[in-house]
Design brief:
CATH class of the largest domain: Alpha Beta
Distance between the termini: 63 Å
Strand order of the largest sheet: 2-1-10-9-11-12-13
CATH superfamily of the largest domain: ANL, N-terminal domain
Helix content: 25-40%
Largest sheet: 7 strands, mixed
Structural class: alpha/beta
Radius of gyration: 24 Å
Number of strands: 30
Strand content: 15-25%
Number of domains: 3
Mean pLDDT: 89
CATH topology of the largest domain: Rossmann fold
Length: 610
């Protein structure tokens, strides 16, 4: 694979003119990894930071060692029955073993990476729906409580034949690492016909429970996304990336993970807790200096946290960009980060159903406020007319629902009945509202779907509403996302009680929490209101509730900080914005702006007349 140089739409069109074979030379993951290891055998591929102690050295694998271990993993999983129909699931943080389970599992058959923060019932449903016969999970440890959930899975998942424990003390017969060591790593001991169209993985999405929603991805989808990302970011074998994303998220796995490995670069994985480790975050810039990092990958809420971390003399001049995605990026947050550290920020628009990427802001191009970047080569992105089947593309600049088709778009959900409305006539309909500018920039102005995005995890508000509506005192319930500095959004709920019923909000929340099947979906607060805002046809009008949630969050922060300025809200169904009004003292503007900067929403300050 030859590197490309992408800065503008004309560069993408030049790549397309040369044809796909000149852009990506491999149709399957093993061939691509073998090529990368052959070209960069002795260079570092993965460094694992065991702790936030700067004095403790990293554990390092070269590209040749990584390929050796990936082949061992593929051979082991094949031996355990993993193939194109029987998969492997894993419950692992972003540690080296997770890369072996992901990459080795895709070579042997198919993989289902699972968010280990989900509850056991949800995990069991995903294991069953993905037909996984093997589970690789984090061995018992004090930092993450994954192991107790695994014990509950054994009786709930009849198709689960084997559980392997990784990264910890366990019996050799059940140790992922011990069993890997028994396998050859110089070759694959099995033959399997694999091509660009072969399904490699199914990633859960949508935050649904009870009826899992698994998006399929092929080898070709993942390679196209990963190699495209490497070219947009101008990644080479000299790059070192601190990747703070988990591998059950497509951005961590492919946009920032596999892309770096295919380019011959070096991934640094930050401790068991990743960017949730407060000690690591406080020493982040010193680890940047120690590892000579050139690229940083972090969600917008982590960017906000890093704004509060003083480099304290650390030399961070090696860093050429911070790469972000997973949730909306406020323009002010990106600008504040660039001003503070002198590090350019580049955004993406992604989706699980297309292996993680719809559009990317190129490193060699400018960051354009309001834009998520350019489409990938050999893809088409446009706005389409809402609710029209088949989707009808709209002219450049005209607002509609964003849709795409091309080499990154997966074959659909494992449950084909779920494809309607998302996979339509060859198009992937995203549910995001926006337009494509004349220069090719993809712009998102709102969200057609009600999904709540908490720390890059999609939450279906329906699971919250269903639990609330089961309570005998509840007449109407609606869940929306409230802005949060760390999580991006957290779920909150608004409830109208039935006539004659009296109940306080904390009691109601305590009563329904056991019926909400995943911990991240438990609302931060329930607010009792007299009536729901409704549309003309009698549907709950959620944009008004989202604005109310925004008001609650901002008033809470402003009051906590000692600001009594009036908050006024202005918003539309396709774009949310807030106006924070403050008194005539202009000196307060900077303080309020600093308080607002971490929130992933559009906002502005308006000064009251004296």
């Amino acid at each position: 694979m030859k590197p490309a140089d992408i800065a503008r739409l004309a560069d993408i069109e030049a790549i397309e003119a040369a044809g796909p074979a000149a852009f990506i030379g491999h149709g399957d993951l093993h061939a691509a990894l073998t090529d990368a290891a052959g070209r960069h055998a002795g260079r570092k591929a993965i460094s694992w930071l065991p702790s936030a102690d700067l004095a403790q050295p990293a554990e390092v694998w070269t590209h040749a060692e990584l390929l050796h271990r990936v082949r061992q993993a593929a051979n082991l999983l094949h031996e355990l029955g993993v193939d194109g129909s029987q998969g492997v699931a894993f419950l692992l943080p972003a540690i080296p073993a997770a890369y072996l389970a992901l990459l080795g599992g895709e070579i042997a058959g198919r993989v289902c990476p699972i968010n280990y923060l989900l509850d056991a019932e949800h995990i069991a449903a995903l294991i069953d729906a993905s037909h996984s016969r093997v589970l690789v999970a984090l061995a018992p440890c004090a930092e993450l409580d994954i192991a107790p959930k695994v014990e509950a899975l054994r009786s709930r998942c009849p198709g689960l034949q084997r559980v392997l424990w990784a990264h910890g003390e366990t019996a050799a017969a059940d140790s992922f690492e011990a069993l890997l060591a028994l396998q050859p790593g110089d070759r694959l001991v099995f033959r399997r016909e694999v091509g660009a169209g072969t399904v490699a993985a199914c990633f859960h999405t949508g935050g649904t429970t009870g009826a899992p929603k698994l998006a399929q991805q092929t080898h070709g989808n993942q390679l196209h996304t990963s190699w495209s990302a490497a070219q947009f970011y101008a990644t080479t074998e000299h790059d070192v990336m601190i990747n703070g994303f988990p591998l059950f998220h497509v951005a961590g796995a492919f946009v920032f993970g596999l892309s770096t490995l295919l380019a011959g670069g070096h991934l640094v994985l930050p401790t068991l807790l990743g960017m949730r480790n407060p000690a690591f975050v406080q020493r982040y810039w010193h680890f940047v200096q120690r590892e000579r990092a050139t690229l940083l990958a972090a969600v917008p809420t982590v960017m906000s946290a890093l704004l509060g971390v003083d480099p304290a003399g650390a030399d961070i001049g090696s860093v050429r960009a911070l790469l972000t995605g997973g949730s909306p990026l406020p323009d002010e947050l990106a600008a504040a980060f660039e001003r503070r550290f002198g590090i350019p920020v580049r955004n993406i628009l992604g989706m699980t159903e297309c292996a993680g990427v719809i559009a990317i802001e190129p490193f060699r191009g400018p960051r354009t406020p309001g834009s998520c970047g350019l489409r990938l080569p050999f893809t088409e992105v446009c706005a389409v007319a809402p609710d029209e089947q088949p989707p009808r593309p709209l002219p450049a600049g005209q607002t509609g629902v964003l849709a795409l088709r091309g080499a990154n778009v997966g074959p659909g959900y494992t449950d084909v009945a779920r494809n309607a409305g998302t996979f339509e006539a060859g198009w992937l309909v995203t549910g995001d509202i926006g337009h494509v500018a004349a220069d090719g920039g993809v712009c998102v102005t709102g969200r057609a779907k009600d999904v709540i995005i908490r720390s890059s995890h999609n939450i279906d508000p329906g699971v919250i509403e269903q639990a609330l509506l089961q309570h005998p005192a509840v007449l109407h319930a609606a869940a929306v996302g409230e802005p949060d500095e760390y999580a991006g959004e957290v779920p909150v709920a608004f409830v109208v009680l039935k006539p004659g019923h009296t109940l306080d909000a904390p009691t109601l929340l305590a009563a329904v929490t056991p019926h909400i099947p995943e911990r991240p979906a438990v609302p931060k607060r329930v607010t009792l209101i007299d009536s729901m805002p409704m549309t003309a046809i009698g549907k709950i009008y959620k944009p008004a509730l989202r604005l109310r949630a925004v008001e609650q969050a901002l008033r809470e922060r402003l009051q906590r900080a000692g600001f009594a300025g009036q908050i006024s809200l202005k918003g539309e169904e396709t774009a949310r914005g807030v106006a924070v009004r403050f008194g005539a003292d202009e000196s307060r503007r900077a303080d309020i702006a600093a308080l607002m900067a971490p929130f992933a929403l559009a906002w502005r300050l308006e000064q009251d007349a004296p």
